[in-house]
Amino acid sequence: MSRRDRSLASAMLFLVLLIALACESKVASGDGPIIHASAKAAPTPDPANTITIAAVGDIMLGSTSINDSFLPPNDGRDLLKPMMQHLTDADITFGNLEGPMLEGGTSAKCAPPAKPKADEVASPAITPKPSGTPKPVRCYAFRVPTRYGKYLKEAGFDVMSLANNHAADFGEYGRISTRKVLDGLGIKYAGGDRLRFSTAFLDVKGKKIAFVGFAHNNIVPNLNDLETAKQLVIAAKKKADIVVVSYHGGAEGEAAQHVPKETEIFVGEKRGNVYLFAHTVIDAGADLVIGHGPHVMRAMEIYKGHLIDYSMGNFATYGMFSLNGPQSLSAVFHFTIGFDGKFVSGQIIPAKQEGRGGPIPDPSGAVIKKIQSLSLADFPTTSPTIGDDGTISIK
User: Fold this and answer.
1) 269: CB partners within 8 A, 6+ apart
2) Which candidate, 248, 238, 118, 230, places its Cα nearest to that of 192?
3) Looking at CB atoms within 10 Å, which of 50, 268, 290, 388 has the fewest?
4) Is 201 exposed, middle or buried (0-12, 13-18, 19+ CB in 10 A)?
């Protein structure tokens, strides 16, 4: 190489270095773009001025409603441990408690058929003979042992939703027992069967955080009743700095992964227009809306600077849930909210359930890919940016 060529190469190298230094300076000062392999990097939140919520979907740690074979190994002690670190490293940890916690009791859902009275018994001459062995009827009423409450406490749960279609599986006795267990553990609850139990309040970093719970039945605040929902959120906002709305709604199963903008009907029940409900409660003052009930993940949306997660799927559902295909996907969601109530950033920590259930880490990140695709399909212009690493940010 000639001296002239060497001089020219040196000059070009010097120019490249100058450009690189200038770009680095602009990025450091916030004037230049920050490039991420898959998504715009979320801003680093100021921990002093934000609240981080770890949230998960349905939790049913094991049931004695049929027999003890539906309880997990080691009596459930290990069920939540694989994901415990991600549950305890937030200011508030939330989950949906799918089923009452009690000992004994009876369920009207699973009561044996009443025996006919003597004068109602048909004549033996016309009574048909049974053909074959009758198949056992599987009862979907859950009864979680009260001793399992301590596992929720150890895993860091601060507040639970009691608004779902299984909270009343064992009637009033089951609801009272559940509240007693949670009260004894110092765990708050929202969406109960009395007006005073509809909203839970927590004090964090000098701020009051409200959780309001809704479901699709008339025992608890009903997400089909939009006017009452608005009033409950308005009342909560008067007392709290940040209002989180949790709802149990929408159809169920693999066919229910997308968010329709209409009322969903499932097994003859009105399961709510979750799109209209979420927008309505944010208009009324809610700062974050988190859904559960479909047993699958659904899309995320940003509405007026607030995040809506339309379904967080199953989290820890042992023994009596279908965990096939998309119903096996699980996650811990971290949502960071500013003191002004606006969404700052988030993170999806991927998990899955195998066998009979219980969340374990999923290095494949399948749940992230699923939520990415659902969000872009259902809300192409209003979905958040979801990175391949699970980061959530506003576009």
Assistant:
1) 165, 216, 217
2) 248
3) 268
4) middle
> Is residue 115, in this structure, part of any structural domain at all?
no
Which residue did the predictor score with more confidence, 46 or 68? 68
Look up residue 122 and give its two tokens. 């048909």
pLDDT at 354: 96
Q: What is the spatial order of strands in the sheet that 242-248 belongs to?
A: 199-204, 207-214, 242-248, 288-292, 306-309, 300-303
Place of tokens 């996907």: 329
Domain assignment present for residue 384? The answer is: yes
Q: CB-based burial of residue 109 (10 Å sphere; 0-12 exposed, 13-18 middle, 19+ buried)?
A: middle
Using an 8 Å Cβ cutoff, are 161 and 199 in contact?
Answer: no
How far is the CA of 294 from the CAs of 215, 250, 254, 257, 381, in angstroms? Answer: 12, 6, 9, 8, 24
Q: In one letter, which amino acid is 120?
A: E
Q: What digits encode the pLDDT tens for the residues 330-388?
A: 999 999 999 999 999 999 999 999 999 999 999 999 999 999 999 999 999 999 999 99
In a domain, 310, yes or no: yes
Domain containing 215 — which CATH number?
Answer: 3.60.21.10
**Would you say 53 and 95 are in contact if contact means Cβ atoms under 8 Å apart?**
no
Q: Whole domain around residue 146: which residue ranges?
A: 49-105+141-393
User: Poorest-confidence range of 83-97, 125-139, 234-248, 276-290?
Assistant: 125-139
Q: For residue 382, tell me if it sits in a domain.
A: yes
The torsion region of residue 277 among left (phi > 0), alpha (psi -120 to 50) and beta comes to alpha
Q: How far is CA 76 from CA 99, 108, 144, 149, 339, in A?
A: 16, 26, 11, 10, 37
Q: Supply the pLDDT for residue 27.
A: 38
pLDDT digit string (tens) for 165-222? 898 999 999 999 999 999 999 999 999 988 889 999 999 999 999 999 999 998 999 9
Amino acid at 181: V
What's the start-to-end Cα distance of the chain, in Å? 49
Share of the chain above pLDDT 70, in %: 81
Q: Where are the alpha helices (DSSP H) in the chain?
A: 3-29, 84-88, 149-154, 171-185, 226-239, 274-284, 366-378
Q: Which residues 6+ apart lie within 8 Å of 364 measured at CB?
A: 350
Rounded CA separation 187/152 (Å): 9
